[in-house]
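for the writeup, i need someone to sanity check this before i put it in the appendix. the sequnce is what the collaborator sent (i think, or maybe the updated version? ugh). structure was predicted straight from it, no edits. if anything looks off just tell me and ill rerun, i have time this weekend
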Amino acid sequence: MDPKWQFLHVLWQQRAKLLVLVLIVSLIAPQPARAQFGIDWGAIVAAINSIGTAISNTIGPALRADAKITGQSGSDLSHYGSFEEPLHAKM
């Protein structure tokens, strides 16, 4: 018999022992850390929250001031009528 086939024949005869050995090794082997290969959602959420806080603290005041100015100019222009009205309606 060819040595390769003889080796496979021995493995097939000892398959129950081989299966038990694989099971024991898989139970004893150390498990990977929780975020070692996965996505660390906590870190991503914390980063997004800090970005949101930074945007609110830096851009927020400028946007509030702009909205305040826009609100005032909108009320100042209100007596001119709607910009969507056709010109012939006013004549």
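The chain has five helices and no strands. Helices lie at 3-13, 15-28, 41-58, 60-76, 87-90.
thx in advance!!
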